[in-house]
Amino acid sequence: MIELLPGREKQVVHTGDAGGKPAEMACGKNSVAGSVSQRACVFCGSRVVLYPIADALHIVHGPVGCAAYTWDIRGALSSGPQLHRNSFTTDLQEMDVIYGGEKKLEAALLELIAHHSPKAAFVYSTCIVGLIGDDVSAVCKRVEAKTGIPVLGVHSEGFKGTKKDGYKAACDALYNLIGTGDISNISPHSINILGEFNLAGETWILRDYYKRMGIEVVSCLTGDSRIEDIRRAHGAKLNLVQCSGSMTGLAKMMERDHGIPFKRVSYFGIEDMSTALYEAAKFFKDDPTIMYRAQKLVREEVAAIYPELQRFKQKLIGKKAAIYVGGSFKAFSLMRALRLIGMETAIVGSQTGDKEDYKTLQEMADPGTIIVDDANPLELAKFCLEKDVDLFIGGVKERPIAYKLGIGFCDHNHERKEPLAGYIGMVNFAKEVYASVASPVWQFAPRRVKRAALLSQTPLGDFS
Ligand code: SF4
Questions:
Q1: Between the CA of residue 149 and those of 105, 120, 364, 402, what are the distances in Å?
Q2: Tens of pLDDT along 341-396?
Q3: pLDDT one-digit tens code per residue, 185-196
Q4: Which of 65, 245, 68, 241 is nearest to 163 (CA)?
Q5: What CATH number labels 42-175?
């Protein structure tokens, strides 16, 4: 058993400890001070949601460090404009803190809009703006009147809550655009894809599936998106929400104000990918050909990848994995995808899961699995040692933890270059997991060398 930081006891459970029933977990609360949480700040939460809107200007009102921290953070691809890949900032300095940064922000916005002609601008408030009290909304209003494009304040002061509050700030800003475009020529069989960010081109894979089924994708929020499409999003008949932590709030607002129902889906793994397609087909039951096309698509795609997955399964069977991701819905899919290739999940956690999510995770997990909310590097490292995992699935902040411990790593977050969504994504996932887990490099990791030496009673040599 490992020691936890005081105050974190209710955010970690071992499945089975509560006598077979899921234990009630604490979650959705501020990180314990000094824990160096893996969770990002409010500002970062809003930035990752809005970043992929490719024809908008994104300006960080704050110190240059906040802008550098989130520069090109998603790695989200665009099929057209690349303006989103810049990280503009007002670079607030001491004098701005004393006298205020509103004039600087207004001048920066006017100059950048004149130079880049974006379709809209997002202005992100950071910690320091919350402290000095700049009226960002007033500046946005003035610049909007002068330039004629939407200029939207994102109220994402870093200290004011959790990453989830950043998602909400981003969705509030987005919602100002939805409902302002022409929806006259939208198909009766149309959807919006919410919470999909086009990492490594995943949005394009999904768009292709829906096109093959005869469904129009009005907008994707926000992977490879354009302001004009977002303005028309209220014309879709159904919202499919993938990253539930970030976009369920927006889906609920659209249901309330525009009558668009929503479904939670996931595009990772064969099971969840197929369910996502069938859910959409079931919704449009007035046209049975959509279901027929969905079934044909699933049959063809699964038949094409199944033999290769079986080959990986033979090599990976019995290996153990740790999962630590942003939203817990992704964790559900990853657990299922790992099972498909013969692997066990020994640790699973998220930054933003809620009580229901953690209950589901406990029900899905094998007895003794560690479930953790809002973890920190120390805990994750200790859990990995306790469970002796072969693979860590996480993001940029978890990669060094895995490598230092001599554990294989699979990036399932912002930085990856291979698509992991869809059927082709499942094969890529299996390939990446196998390549990392089976890499010969881990035999040279000090921890493994020491263990091998102990087992064989041979000297440690240079590795001691
Ligand atoms: S907004 Fe605050 S917490 Fe977030 S990166 Fe900037 S200074 Fe750090």
A1: 16, 5, 48, 45
A2: 999 999 999 988 889 989 999 999 998 999 999 999 999 999 999 999 999 999 88
A3: 999 999 999 999
A4: 245
A5: 3.40.50.1980
Helix 102-116 / helix 136-147 crossing angle, nearest 10 deg: 30
The superfamily CATH assigns to domain 190-299 is: Nitrogenase molybdenum iron protein domain (3.40.50.1980)
The ligand 1 atom at the shortest distance from the C-alpha of residue 158 is: 1
The residue whose CA is least distant from atom 6 of ligand 1 is 66
Domain covering 306-448 in this structure, CATH number: 3.40.50.1980
E-strand stretches of 78-230: 88-89, 120-125, 151-154, 190-196, 216-222
**Rounded percentage of the chain residues whose pLDDT exceeds 70:** 96
* Residue extents of the structural domains in the chain: 42-175, 190-299, 306-448
* Ligand 1 center to 134 CA (angstroms): 16
Q: Is the CB of 69 under 6 A from ligand 1?
A: yes
Is the CB of 89 inside a 6 Å radius of any atom of ligand 1? no
Distance (Å) from CA 41 to ligand 1 centroid: 6
CB of 43 sitting under 6 A from ligand 1: yes
Cα–Cα distance list, 370 to 11, 305, 346, 349 (Å): 10, 31, 6, 8
Domains 42-175 and 306-448 share a fold: yes
Return the pLDDT at 21. 80
pTM value?
0.89
Q: Please give the pLDDT value at position 457.
A: 62
Question: What is the distance in A from the centroid of ligand 1 to the CA of 140?
Answer: 21
Position with higher pLDDT, 49 vs 445? 49
pLDDT of residue 239: 98
